[in-house]
Amino acid sequence: MDNFLNEYSRFVDNVTSDESKDLAKLIVRLIELNNQGINVARLLTGTIGAASEGGEFAEIVKKTIFQGKPVTEDNLFHMKRELGDEMWYWMQKCMALDIDPKEVIEENIRKLEARYPGGFEVARSEVRQEGDL
User: 13, 39, 90, 112: which sits with the fewest CB atoms below 10 Å from its CB?
Assistant: First the structure.
């Protein structure tokens, strides 16, 4: 098993970018992005924070669905607060990219209306048109 893990470790290293392995190269890349108008500090704050808060919200949902946690006013309030935290980090990402939050929502509506013109259909969710990300 040790040989397998050593081989896998080499594989992982081989398919990992230099910026993911080397602090100096990462710093150069962060500066490049900053110079292109991306507020990297806000982008990292928003991205890592949103992932963390999404995990906290998912933990509540997991316990409610799979572990029998009751749906109480306290639990709903907790979920509401976590959703607020997710929105705070979402706004950080919009600010980092200098994107109008209203435009993000409007573009999402256009994308989903094009994907589901008559409402949700499983087939449309699994087979996308070219350019539908």
Answer: 13
Contact 60, 75 (CB under 8 A): yes
Coil/strand/helix, residue 117: strand
Cβ 88 vs Cβ 45: under 8 Å = no
- Which segments of 1-133 does DSSP mark as H helices, in order? 2-14, 18-21, 23-35, 40-66, 73-96, 101-115, 122-126
Instruction: Give the pTM.
Output: 0.84
What does the pLDDT read at residue 1? 66
Q: How high is the pLDDT of residue 128?
A: 73
Q: Do the Cβ atoms of 40 and 27 come closer than 8 Å?
A: no
Ranges of residues in the chain whose predicted pLDDT is under 50: none
Write out the two tokens for 84: 């607020």
Q: Taking each helix axis from N to C terminus, what angle separates 40-66 and 23-35, rounded to the nearest 10 degrees?
A: 110
Please report how many Cα atoms fall inside a 13 Å half-sphere around the Cα of residue 116, on the Cβ side: 10
